[in-house]
């Protein structure tokens, strides 16, 4: 019998990391992938196909939320900050009638974002980073496995910045915003309150990745987001785990105490993070949507 081990007999994690090692050698090779029923062009190194295999609900919480919010006769208006290759936008527009304003500042992913969306008149792409403070501090992109974070540096190639207020002023089709999504690897807790402030006269549902470790790595204190959103009148919060499974609902004044679990490591390296949707009490349809998608209260998950 041959001593050579069939690759199919290797543990899934080992096979996955071996695949990543090969694909990362040719990170920008273009491949077409069917991601949960939606076709898109991805860089070969992108991890999305690994997270969305058979039986996975990864990322579908956002799509299901969009479907609930877009169930009426008016096209859904969505702001997609950290649009990456357009994967969230494509899946939302496959599921519901709407239009999406995509904001992406990483040139590596902008190429794929344009490939995936330029033929769709429902998508508007803004080649910029959303500013956290109204300034343009020099940053550089740090990429890994299909996601990007930005680190402050002494000097860098010029990157265009835009504020949330400028987005609303410049793009009239999105003067009324129904859903705002942010996935920016640690900057979400700074950006989301600015988006909420810019559209505070008709508060959209806010959906973002809530990660204590990445937020602090980016220089942002994650717990501060809840006080800021509370000051803008937001109250109800739906919580999913990092696989997209519903955990429960709570409020902006209670979630901070429950979120201490996110400071604990899982295994040797992995960190907890949550997806959260935050709804203003004046938004009856938004409240109904999260009550349907995330039934029951969020209890102490420790």
TrEMBL record:
One MF term in GO for this entry? methyltransferase activity
Keywords, ordered alphabetically = Methyltransferase, Transferase
Query: Could you state one GO biological process linked to this protein?
Result: methylation
The keyword Transferase is annotated on this UniProt entry: yes
Instruction: Indicate yes or no for the key word Transferase.
Output: yes
Coiled coil residues, start to end:
none
The name this protein goes by in its record: FkbM family methyltransferase
Where are its TM segments located?
none
In terms of InterPro entries, this protein maps to: FkbM_mtfrase, SAM-dependent_MTases_sf
Query: What is the native source organism of this protein?
Result: Nocardioides jiangxiensis
